[in-house]
Description:
- The protein has about 190 residues and is mostly helical.
- Helices cover about 60% and strands about 5% of the residues.
- The chain contains seven helices and two strands; from the N terminus they run H-H-H-H-H-H-E-E-H.
- Helix 2 (about 20-45) runs antiparallel to helix 7 (about 150-170), helix 3 packs parallel to helix 7 (about 150-170) and helix 5 (about 90-100) runs antiparallel to helix 6.
Amino acid sequence: MEQNASTAPASHDQNLNDLQKMSCQVIAQAISLALSIRELIRQGYLFGGHVLVRAFVERVTILLYLHECPEKVGLWNNGWTHKEAPSLAKMFEVIQQKQQHTQYVRGFELTSSMNSLTHGKPSSARWNTVPINGNSIGHSVSKILNRPELCDELCADIIPWMVSLQGMIAAYFPPRLDGAPDPPAT
């Protein structure tokens, strides 16, 4: 929040390039989703928090992808349509290739659990099962207060993406040496 509060004013009333215009929208959405996840954690709605992870990760990944492939910003400007825009899995693969990762992970392997949650697949049950009546297991429809490992997992999943988001804020709006953000490039 602090980084956004100090960076966002530099984008107001400025002549932004297409990447910066995109980033203003996507950064704000990512921060809003992160705050929503935080609030769900605080309230004990861990399943809902886990479901929002994909939406949050997708926005940070769009920022990473377009930073690595700025020539693709036209896809964003044209609506980022399902038929034209890369899938989350494809963006993961392209980012790894651009960054020349030595250990490559297929995109679908990175998105599998997030897709399970988003699309209500049978494998998503692990995120809302709770112990009931001693030896039984049920599916929670409300708060999950007796599975601290789910809370820890959710927090651990979000932290690296928060760091990436901060990196993207700095990449799209680099700070000046005096600490003030640079005016946006034209």
